[in-house]
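REQUEST ID: PR-0412
SUBMITTED BY: lab tech R.K.
PRIORITY: routine
TASK: structure prediction, single protein chain
INPUT:
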Amino acid sequence: LGKKVKAVVSTQSTGSADSHLRELAAKRVGNTYLIPYKGMFKYVSAANYFGEILEWFGFALIMQTPAAAWFSLFSTLFLGQRGYQTHQFYLKKIDSYPKSRSSVFPFSGF
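STATUS: complete
OUTPUT:
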């Protein structure tokens, strides 16, 4: 039961992050960028990637196969890199972007 709860929570996290990004994209005017601020975006620049990483680890826990474990590890590395690039982009493009946010993993500095 605990593994299924983790999977549901991570799926909810990803869905709410993606929804917030869509809301901001709809409000965007011209070349201005809006700072995401809801949910996990309070702590990380790429909350959508963080949620997806949690989803894949939940999948690996449920499946308990080497293939699922490797895929979750690969996803963490790939999405972690993408999240880091997103974080650097925000820092470069938005002067008022919160410097205290991590890129993907809350309170980690990465």
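NOTES: The radius of gyration is 15 Å.
REVIEWED BY: pending
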